[in-house]
Amino acid sequence: MRTGGQVAGPVVVGSVEYGPMTSGTPLVVVLGHQRCGAVKAAYEALKDRKPLPGDLQSIAEALRPAYRETVERQHADPVDAMVRIHTKQTAAGLRTDNDLAPLVKRGDLAVVSACYSLDTGRVEVLNGAPSA
Fold it and tell me: Which residue would you say has higher pLDDT here, 21 or 6?
């Protein structure tokens, strides 16, 4: 499912839960991508303390924890850093989801965070890859 900034609200999480919980889907990938426009807009709005119009502000608010972590450290490309941080945070949240966590613990489900490079077409696994 594609969402602005890889934001996973209740409907998205429920949709992600559906496969593993009903048919044994063994893998969920949270995939961020280089130069994400939603993350860039959120980063700038949060940095400048200027809300985004309409429901776009809800994306910025969901990205606020990643923004905070991004600004705590110095990054050459803060938007890219924020994409990666938020992607990892989203995957971690899914791994600890009340319904998915038991599947992860048993090894029946892997929740992987990854980042897609628009320049090279390559996907870099950030964390959560199964060991086998």
Answer: 21
Our count of domains for the chain comes to 1
Of 102, 86, 112, the C-alpha closest to 3 is 86
Domain of residue 112: give its range.
Answer: 26-127
Assign residue 32 the CATH number of its domain: 3.40.1050.10
Distance, in Å, from the CA atom of 66 to the CA atom of 86, rounded to the nearest integer, reads 5
Query: Exposed, middle or buried: residue 112 (CB in 10 Å: 0-12, 13-18, 19+)?
Result: buried
- Tell me, what DSSP letter sits at residue 25? -
Per residue in 48-69, pLDDT (tens digit) is 999 999 999 999 999 999 999 9
